[in-house]
Amino acid sequence: MSHIKFNPRTLTVLLFILVIGVFRALIPVMGDINVLANYSAVGAIALFGGAYFKSNGKAFGFPLLTLLLSDLILSVTFYKDFNGGFLYEGWYLVYAAVALMVLAGKLIMKKVSVYTVVLASIVTVLIHWIVSDFGVWYGSAIYPQTLAGFWAALAAAVPFEIRFLDGTLGYSAVMFGLFEYLKAKYPVLSLKTSKLLVH
Q1: Is residue 193's pLDDT more than 60?
Q2: Residue 6 DSSP SS3
Q3: What is the pLDDT of residues 4-57, one digit of tens each?
Q4: Which of residues 113 and 89 earns the better pLDDT score?
């Protein structure tokens, strides 16, 4: 009889990402969107995937796919009257930023600790701030197409990025904290012992 490789670590990491991704899609119908605005799980999901998936395909693919699915849900539900299209304007820059966030997670969090989670979260916010606000600035009729105009766009985004940092740190604390707890309790979730054979 052939054997099927079963990796509980991979499935658990993926489950964490999917649950938080679904939660992101449900937030607008769970409370005041103005209160929750930019308290985003996107940064934490990217870092989590980057830290725990050793395969680049899974590390980049699963967070980006989760973002896409939650964006699609939002675009046909809560934001259907605002987007005027399939996805929001500048979505490609957000996805590029998320890919860079995953890379930051892979490079910074070779070992997960409070220090590396906080450092990676700060780097993640800087990535989000620069990349997404480049899209706000470039071609804008509001901000001059100069370096000073770009700085003005960055300055205007500071309150939103503070909320993004809050969200990244908050969701990261839950995701990394819970997974590390489960990993300590169930050694099968550690990288070295995560491969089992199931008939």
Answers
A1: no
A2: strand
A3: 455 778 888 888 888 877 776 666 555 555 555 557 888 999 999 999 988 899
A4: 113
| 103 close to 84: Cβ distance less than 8 angstroms | no
Residue 104 to residue 16: CA distance in whole angstroms: 19
Tokens of 78: 């809560």
Q: How many C-beta atoms surround the C-beta of residue 114 within 10 A?
A: 10
Q: Is 38 in contact with 163 (CB distance < 8 Å)?
A: yes
Tokens of 133: 């606000």
Name the token pair of 152. Answer: 């003005």
Residue among 36, 37, 89, 46 at smallest CA distance from 67: 46
Phi, psi of 17, deg, nearest 5: -65, -45
Q: Which two tokens stand for residue 68?
A: 């896409």
